[in-house]
Fold:
Amino acid sequence: GRLLLARGRTDAAKAAFVDGRERFLQCDAAERATEAAVLVGLAETDLALFAEAERTLRHAYASASALGRGQVAFAAVALARALAWQERYREARLVLDAVTPADAGEVSVRRWCLAARAHIACGALADAWGDLQRARAAAKDSPAAEALARRWEAPLQARLGDVDAVRLHVA
Structure:
């Protein structure tokens, strides 16, 4: 399913994640079912099914919180992403502020990039810059994570009027 999602075959990815979630539930594998539910929500977000995505991700976030394991940050970041796509930045920030992801890794980078996105939308550019510095630090040796952080540096630099920096981040 993840490969399908990464390649833009979102309908097929969603179907695979729904099937996986059901199978994990049948096996009493709650943590894996929660992860699959988050992936369903990500696919729904990519399909612009925002109400469905929010519902799916709120349930996944609640489930992850009840389990008290590593999926909490993953679910929170996915929920915040769905809220951000609806331009509900204040709510997205509240969800992000409720969790502390690991110091490094993709979930941490995504968390800080979403926080920056919310700050940029609200005009809090200094806060966005701090978020992006945290995202870059969390990216460490991952070119994909570094690219994600740079993707959000471009709109910040554009808001600041620094055209040369925008070119650097989108080139």
